[in-house]
Amino acid sequence: MKSLTSRQEEILQYLQTHFTQKGYWPSIRDTQQHFGFKSTNAVAGHLRAIEKKGHLERIPGHARAYRIVEMPTAVPFNDNTIDVTDVPVYGSIAAGYPDRVESGAAIGQLQVDVETAGLKRSGAPIFALKVDGESMIEAGIMDGDVVIIEQKEARNGDIVAALIDNETTLKRFIQEPGRPPYLKSENVNYPSFHPVTELMVQGVAKSVVRSL
Fold first, then answer.
1. What is the pTM of this model?
2. Residues identified as active-site
3. Residue 58 belongs to a domain with what CATH number?
4. Given this model, what pLDDT does residue 155 score?
């Protein structure tokens, strides 16, 4: 394994830090903007060099996914094995007013770090949905984000993907003593939603992925 230049060590550290904090690898354009390179070709060239020197391995079958073989000495890291999993993406969910149900097969896959996403290998099934709307912005969930959903029973205060009167939405699940459960928005410009006939939780939001 050949030694890296100082710039290559910085890039490798950036890859690791980004993945640890956000659960997915940065894009070439993310890396270009972070280091101020004039073009994405410079980033691609550095990545090829790091890979050629044996510090980085591309994971077959996964776009923009790598395995760090050995971290540079400047980066304290005790375990080079990162547990990642593929999460199916099933389209969009309204984070505004409830919208019609979107059904069908997965439209894509998202690779996430199991630990960073707050998941367990032995846990319930998981899937991902893209957020459409701004009703949850005060909970840190923005329009265009992707939420990781775990199929499990909701507790009071959980943010959930729910079916309310045959329409889907992403809201906070509220269950108060002596009252039927309802869905609360996290934006003062949106109301709470009380079911007329049905409220069914489809899953609990575990984490948010931004800037895919």
1. 0.57
2. 135, 171
3. 1.10.10.10
4. 93
Please identify, among 68, 103, 122, the residue that sits at the C-terminal boundary of a domain: 68
Sequence-ordered strand ranges (E) for 6-158: 56-58, 66-68, 84-94, 99-100, 108-113, 126-132, 146-150
Domain range for residue 199?
85-209
CATH of the domain at 199: 2.10.109.10
Is residue 146 domain-shared with residue 172, that is, in the same domain?
Answer: yes
Please report, rounded to a whole number, the percentage of residues in the chain having pLDDT higher than 90.
23
Mean pLDDT score across all residues of the chain: 78
25's tokens:
């690898």
Q: Indicate whether 108 and 200 sit together in one domain.
A: yes
Which uninterrupted H or E stretch holds 15? helix 6-22
Over 90: is that where the pLDDT of 188 sits? yes
Query: Would you say residue 24 has pLDDT above 90?
Result: no
CA 14 and chain centroid, separation:
18
Angle at Cα 63 formed by Cα 58 and Cα 64, nearest 5°? 65
Contacts of 42 (CB under 8 A, 6+ apart): 32
Examine the pLDDT at 121 and tell me if it is beyond 60.
no
